[in-house]
Amino acid sequence: MSGVTMNEQLVADGAPQAVSGLYQPRLPRWAPAALALGAAVVAIAIGLGAGLGSRVQWGLLAGVLYVAATFVVAARVEGRRQAKDRLATSLVWVCFLIAVVPLVSLMWETIARGIKVLDGNFLSHSMAGVLTIQPGGGVYHAIIGTLEQVGIATVIAAPIGLLTAIYLVEYGRGRLAKAVTFFVDVMTGIPSIVAGLFVLSFWILMMDNGYSGFAGSMALAILMMPVVVRSTEEMLKLVPNELREASLALGVPKWRTILKVVLPTAIGGIATGVMLAVARIAGESAPIVLLVFGSQLINNNPFEGAQSSLPYYIYEQWAAGNEASYDRAWAAALVLIAFVMILNLVARGIARWKAPRGGRS
Amino acid sequence: MDITPATAAPPPLGAAPAPAGQKATTRPGDRIFLALSRGSGILLLVIMAAIAVFLTVRATNALSHNEGNFFTTFEWSANSTPPVFGIAVLAFGTVVSSLIAMLIAVPVAIGIALFISHYAPRKLSTPLSYVIDLLAAVPSIVYGLWGALFLVPHLGGLYSWLNDYFGWTGIFEYHDGAARSLFTIGILLAIMILPIVTSVSREVFLQAPKMHEEAALALGATRWEVIRMSVLPFGRSGVISASMLGLGRALGETMAVATVLSPSFEIGKSLLDPGGGTFAQNIASSFKESGEIGKDALIASGLVLFVLTLLVNGAARLIIARRKEYTA
Amino acid sequence: MAKRIDVSGLNAYYGAHKAIDDISMTVEPRSVTAFIGPSGCGKSTFLRTLNRMHEVTPGGRVEGKVMLDDENLYGPGVDPVSVRRTVGMVFQRPNPFPTMSIFDNVAAGVRLNGGRVRKDELDGIVEKSLKGANLWNEVKDRLNKPGAGLSGGQQQRLCIARAIAVEPQVLLMDEPCSALDPISTLAIEDLIGELKERFTIVIVTHNMQQAARVSDRTAFFNLAGVGQPGKLVEIDDTERIFSNPSVQATEDYISGRFG
Predict the structure, then answer these.
(1) Complex confidence, ipTM
(2) Quick check: C246 contacting B, CB < 8 Å?
(3) Class of domain A140-353
(4) pTM to 2 decimals?
(5) Taking CB atoms and an 8 Å limit, are B215 and C159 in contact across chains?
(6) Engineering a disulfide at B254: which of A11, A286, B269, C138 sits with its beta carbon 3.0 to 4.6 angstroms away?
(7) Which neighbouring-strand residues pair with C101?
């Protein structure tokens, strides 16, 4: 009680002195929820009244109303500092909601629309003999393409990436190591379409090879290498130096120390990094457009002739522009997301399971 | 190079065979292993150099045939004779859509990152950061499909409203029709880069030293004041570099843009009306109809994109490196 | 200025784990009270309950009463932010804000609390606080330099200046000298002697000589075993605790027989 009066006095004189009362008038705990509800109701009312067509607008309106109302109410009851604090809190919450809406919608649409034509037939058939306006057909050829292209890319990129990381962590001193570190960073930022253009220019245009899954694999490998280097590097750095020294002190040569002591300690994290990199390139479509060309048919040979891939298939079916092909595009998107998510979850599972202990308390 | 036994012998104390005080590279196993790993590192450098060289060679070929001005021509007729093409429209579209994406995504990402690091109840924040990381893995073509078939039809209302109230500015003029415009691309790119910017910023915010937060709290700071005094100053450079990484992604994004944008080779006054193009989108969209010179012309535009992303990423790395020095 | 602290029946938890059990004590105004005891006995936790910093730790929870004169810090409607303004705190490791100058560090709390403060008024507060922390002469020529550039002891005194600038009633110190060299420690101890003219001071320390040197009253905390909550064994005049404690465990601890 006395606290309230003191605080009022403070507001009255605007004195910069510390408050001696411990009591601050606070909004009740239910206030934010009530304000949010009120803002939503008013927004809907305005939306209906003014005939705003887009639900997005209703949401934006509700958000603005909520933030404004919270600030005004808090400023009146609790004072300016608390009002600012509440303003920040409500802005942070609004940000969170703004972000959640599209991401949830993306997931929802993909699942709801994708499930329609997704069945055994869809997974086990190609588009051979199916007109794009016809329903039916499937993604079998695209799955084969994706698996082969991603597999070859991994076989190329993983060892190179791993060895580069070992070089950087275990041997890397001096200029070369610095240059490699820098260019690995630069390489991480290369747009996938540029990697595609590079392979196009030297493999197809200059060396006169045809379009093939392998050409796509090379571009994917370029995209994958820096990711593998980075994550492996992080993992190797987590291996405590004592382990290396213990092994070296036993007279074990350095290369065997790396192979037998360092790598096994970090293997969980390395595997996680590689799988995350695989998940990343499995969704790449731009290089495929340039290098693999796309096909309706099953082509099991990645080294000869056009192939398809899941991301490319989605693009192609979307471009066909009719209901039947849209259905196939959504179904393929669901398959692709499921594939990528499973890779991600497995990768994180491994990371949890084999995490090197002691890095954190 | 059979000096191995000779140099291994000198340390006379050596009961242990370990080559103490000499380079490990003298053992054959070590030599091979070092050669392999150093070779891999060098290979990466060679690839980077090759990318620059090959793109430049092909681009030069295209430019030598170009009848237009590569930087100012508003046209892309690389397959006609004589070929005429210029990147003005593409550069404009790429930069504008990426900037819109940044304007939307960065504040929201900072908000979500703070939400996860300082506001959300712990039970919520761990799964939430997990979900954000997963979303970063959603393939861009799926964003494209969603953008074209869901987002575009739902933006018409918002755009009409913007036209009603802000149409006078010119850039928010909107004539009915599918909202397959640069602004839509900006929104879509914002959604796409949100996860990456968020997760990098979150990491930085979580690293803010607890003792400074406690110092602010003990002075009687509210939660927001704690963040302003001890978290944001600490995280500023991290957020900047996270944004640059996001910008790099937005600049190079291909399939999502190619799926959603309705391209044209002009710079429209309005951002809401369809038209425009980006480097990556133009490469993917025009590739199949391109002949030899046409492909080389696309490679030339890809080279510009390459340089642009190099600059942005380089700047991001510089900022991160500076921060490391600062905190160490 | 200074107020009396009256704790009764205080329990503190980390999640399900009870960290301190049923503590009651009185801390006299304008005096220095030292908390001693073995590691993990809950003395730092207890200190942090006195300005409601304990609940900042995830899972941190408090039961009981802490009366500051006649107001309960844990009473309904009490604002923890106001509590922390009234009960200042100095931490184990000096923690000046790294991005702020010396001046801004001292002014930080005042700026938070007062909104707009006139420049000359602020100058006065900063000078007074730095003088109060015996730091003014060392830094008056470089007030605009970053606080992180000072030595450890100077940084800790800067933190004390920052804490007293907002004119708290009570000053809590959590092992303020444990990260400092002997000379800086001496400077801080001298400072504590001066500050008790104006503030109620509570200090946690591992160093028993320090407790004996600076404090008027000493509280000894102990725990029954690993995983058990910490308890207050006894609190008495420092002289008595160090010469003739009433509990055997206190004497054992002070004479170095355990802990």
Answers:
(1) 0.85
(2) no
(3) mainly alpha
(4) 0.83
(5) yes
(6) A286
(7) C146
